[in-house]
Amino acid sequence: MNSILSNIIITVNDKLYVKNPETSPLGKKIIEHSILMIDQIGFESFTFKKLGECIGSNESSIYRYFESKHKLMLYLSSWYWGWIEYRLVFATNNLSIPLEKLKKAITIVTEKIEDDSSTAHINEGILNRIIISEFTKTILTKEVDEENKEGVFLVYKSVINRITDMIVAVNPDYKFAKSLASSIVEGALHQHFLKNHLKTITNCNETISPTDFYIDLVQRITK
Questions:
Q1: Is 211 within a domain?
Q2: N or C: which end of the chain has fewer CB within 10 A?
Q3: Closest to 215 (Cα-Cα) out of 132, 102, 120
Q4: What is the C-alpha separation between 179 and 83, in angstroms, rounded?
Q5: pLDDT value of residue 12
Q6: Which residues touch 67 (CB under 8 Å, ≥6 apart)?
């Protein structure tokens, strides 16, 4: 799959950036090191000034790519869900049995992510950790309705809608396919967070993964 993905450019809504970071070495450096820094110090402590000091660039040069750290975080999350969607499509395209197709899709969106070597400046494993910890901060804002109108969350919703269609294919009579699909996608992030930080309130651990939980759940409620 890596060889296929290496020939694909993940498209991100152009309203999220001033200048596309994928078009220059500095832009790619901003993306690469912002991921590393947010993972290390957290989104609240992350600033463009600190990033500029890290990459040896003026803070103003970063603003030429992103108008705020919120827009940068939206860019990172949009790129992540675009990457997830490509993986989901390729992994399920040739599967004809509806339940097996759904189980594969659930695996893609709930499993622990490893770095994809085909994208040199983006470590997907680290980005996954950021999404687990920080993704809700991109949605739970006063600007969410306006950003939704601008199409900022289209790729995230596309991932959920693909899984919704797969649930319907397994059981057309199930009434809550959209709610189940969105619960799987966002709930998996929460279960990973609990597994890593609040272990006493989840059954997920080193031997039971969020993937195990959601596949078991879907098989039980879509019969």
A1: yes
A2: C
A3: 102
A4: 23
A5: 95
A6: 18
